[in-house]
Amino acid sequence: MLDIPLTKEGMIRAVIETLKRNNLRDAYIRVVVTCGVGDLNLDPRKCPNPTVIIITDTIKLHKTEAKEKGVTSMELLTANEVFFTGTAAEIVPVVEVNKRKIGDGLPGPVTKHFMKEFEK
User: Which residues, in sequence order, are CB contacts of 84 under 8 Å at separation 6+?
Assistant: First the structure.
């Protein structure tokens, strides 16, 4: 098992402190634990110097109520563009739902922008 250099409570405090220092109340938060400099690997025994990195950013592309209530299937199908986001997936364009095109059926400019930002 990987020996993460923070306890669960320490990780929570670090995330909260990061948000406070950046004046963020509602933000995308990504916590990364890396083995440090060198090759990426999945074997925790090959990770002599684990490091915690906290990444935050704001994305204000949706109405507040969409976040609180979710998105209806009609809103999804009539959207100009849709993407999934997650720690492993980063940004994945959604160009079709139930065999129906989203927008013009291609990744849109906002999706492309975020894909490029994740590559940095």
Answer: 91, 92, 94
Q: Please give the chain's pLDDT, 120 residues, in tens.
A: 678 888 999 999 999 999 899 888 777 788 878 777 766 666 777 777 777 776 776 666 556 665 667 778 888 888 899 988 776 677 889 999 889 999 999 999 988 988 887 777
Q: What pTM does this model have?
A: 0.48
The domain that holds 45 is classified in CATH as 3.30.470.10
Regarding whether 66 and 52 lie in a shared domain, the answer is no
Task: Give me the number of domains the chain comprises.
Answer: 2
Q: Can you tell me whether residue 32 is helix, strand or coil?
A: strand
Cβ-contact 11, 52 below 8 angstroms? yes
CATH number at residue 91: 3.20.10.10
Tell me which residue range forms the domain holding 30: 1-58
The answer to whether residues 82 and 108 touch, using CB atoms and an 8 Å cutoff, is no
The three-state secondary structure class of 47 is coil
